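Input (structure):
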């Protein structure tokens, strides 16, 4: 029990230190044409049904489907268009998350491991989408349409309001990158939540896309070992 308490305390202190580091290191961003646009908010379609986990299995883009094209931006404002990037000949792995998503936060180190292992063979991108647990509005994943503060977020001192403009989302993305020391490239979803709406609205989806624009692997929630097998299969 004492060992468990010490371990929990250490994790809390590390997260607190990271949060302080993020607050001190976030730099001003260069403006983009979209900065003043309002972020659209809507509940995840899956949350209309209490069996929402099963609905996500259907709503998320599936293995074998043609990957819908989209254009979003890097944090520095440079555009990213999926089909144009695929023309470079490398498969692309896309994983979404958000600053207040405790699930995606736990998976970031594993995403970084895959990005490092396959850095010469695939391109890995983390996509910052809608906030899973904003402190000022109902969560898009709340069946009861209530503010839903994750217990893990509360314990770690992680809290953020839902960004109201694209600039605020970019600023939170910057804080997220510094806080978690995210190594893979990070993309910022559009004000209308293009990626989130198109690919399935779950908080930590993962898609491995082949250069011929086909979804080679699809996960409602990112799972490293299975995705590694999928990558190896595609590369073989």
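Output (sequence):
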């Amino acid at each position: 029990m004492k060992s468990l308490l010490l371990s929990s305390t250490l994790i809390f202190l590390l997260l607190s230190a990271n949060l302080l580091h993020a607050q001190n290191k976030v730099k001003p961003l260069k403006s983009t044409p979209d900065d003043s646009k309002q972020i659209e908010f809507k509940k995840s379609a899956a949350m209309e049904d209490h069996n929402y986990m099963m609905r996500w299995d259907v709503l998320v883009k599936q293995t074998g489907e043609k990957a819908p094209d989209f254009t979003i931006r890097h944090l520095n404002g440079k555009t990213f268009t999926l089909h144009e990037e695929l023309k470079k000949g490398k498969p692309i792995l896309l994983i979404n998350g958000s600053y207040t998503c405790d699930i995606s936060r736990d998976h970031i180190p594993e995403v970084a491991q895959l990005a490092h292992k396959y850095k010469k063979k695939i391109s890995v991108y983390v996509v910052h989408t809608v906030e899973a647990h904003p402190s000022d509005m109902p969560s898009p994943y709340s069946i009861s349409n209530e503010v839903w503060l994750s217990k893990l977020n509360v314990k770690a001192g992680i809290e953020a309001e839902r960004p109201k403009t694209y600039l605020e989302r970019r600023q939170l993305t910057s804080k997220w990158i510094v806080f978690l020391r995210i190594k893979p490239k990070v993309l910022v979803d559009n004000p209308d939540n293009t990626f989130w709406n198109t690919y399935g609205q779950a908080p930590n989806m993962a898609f491995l896309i082949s250069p011929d624009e086909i979804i080679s692997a699809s996960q409602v929630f990112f799972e490293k070992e299975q995705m590694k097998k999928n990558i190896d299969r595609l590369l073989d």
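Notes: Residues 7-14 have pLDDT under 50 and may be disordered. The beta strands are 71-74, 79-81, 92-97, 123-128, 185-188, 206-209, 215-219.
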